[in-house]
Amino acid sequence: MDKIKVGVMGACGKMGREICKSVLDDPDLELTAAIDVVNQGFDVGILIGRPACGVTIETNLNNLLTNKILDVLIDFTNAQALLNNIPRVIENGINVVIGTTGLTTDEIRNIKFLAEKNDVGAFIAPNFAIGAVLMMKFAREAAQYFPYVEVIEKHHDQKLDAPSGTAIKTMEEIAKTRKPMKQGNPNEYEKIPGARGGDFQGIKVHSMRLPGLIAHQEVIFGGVGQILTIRHDSLSRDSFMPGIMLAAKKVKNWKGLVYGLENIL
Ligand SMILES: NC(=O)c1ccc[n+]([C@@H]2O[C@H](COP(=O)([O-])OP(=O)(O)OC[C@H]3O[C@@H](n4cnc5c(N)ncnc54)[C@H](O)[C@@H]3O)[C@@H](O)[C@H]2O)c1
After folding, report:
1. Whole-number CA gyration radius for the chain
2. Is 21 known to be catalytic?
3. CATH no. for residue 120?
4. Ligand 1 nearest-atom number relative to CA 156
5. What is the pTM of this model?
6. Are both 72 and 174 inside the same structural domain?
7. 14 catalytically annotated
8. Residues 205 and 255 placed together within one structural domain of the fold
9. Among 36, 37, 137, 262, which residue's Cβ finds the most Cβ atoms within 10 Å?
């Protein structure tokens, strides 16, 4: 069987480099393109501390789209870069796997629309780690019995968006079993703005950013005389790779958008 030809957008980033390694190591996948706005002309192998592999960093997406050497493009950049590039990629008939976070509901809806219109497979996951997917599933179950809940998410201090895509998806999952309600003292007030965190249907969410962290989250439920904590830690970016490789292999099997790793496991 022919290998699936994969391009990585944001190839020089923290995630992009790991993804390039995993694609190069996967017998079913072939790395045919690496795109970034930095390191133009660098061999990807050298970039990831290995021997040269013959794929060099390109900054011009148009060249790639014209040459059509891609089955799947994996995007781990930032929301603005993604919105500038992904519509053109989809319009050129290339399937997309998106890990970039910070997209609004309308922006995700537009990617769905474009994928359906162009008969292309699109996949988006706010978190590609299986443990994080289970954390969301367990949180949804727990919220049936514990409606008082707050979310604390912790990431490295270079992250742009807050709260994280995982925190938003977690609260969306919890909202499927918990009615919107206000928590805390009705008369509570903040002496420092933001002290009580962001608010999603009455669920408070707190975003911590520190060097040394990768991606961590606690979902804390309070009940009478008891606390339930569901916690997930991505201790290295390896935790995301099996999910991303799986999506790269499966995305060409459907037309339109699939959202969430739980839907392809
Ligand atoms: N879904 C998940 O499981 C998951 C996991 C980790 C990170 N993320 C998300 O992935 C994204 C990237 O994270 P990171 O830590 O690798 O960030 P990073 O800043 O280390 O890497 C981003 C890369 O994108 C490049 N880039 C910026 N604009 C570009 C453009 N227009 N075209 C091509 N490349 C461009 C940058 O030069 C950089 O190399 C973020 O949105 C982050 O939240 C998602």
Report:
1. 20
2. no
3. 3.40.50.720
4. 15
5. 0.92
6. no
7. no
8. no
9. 36
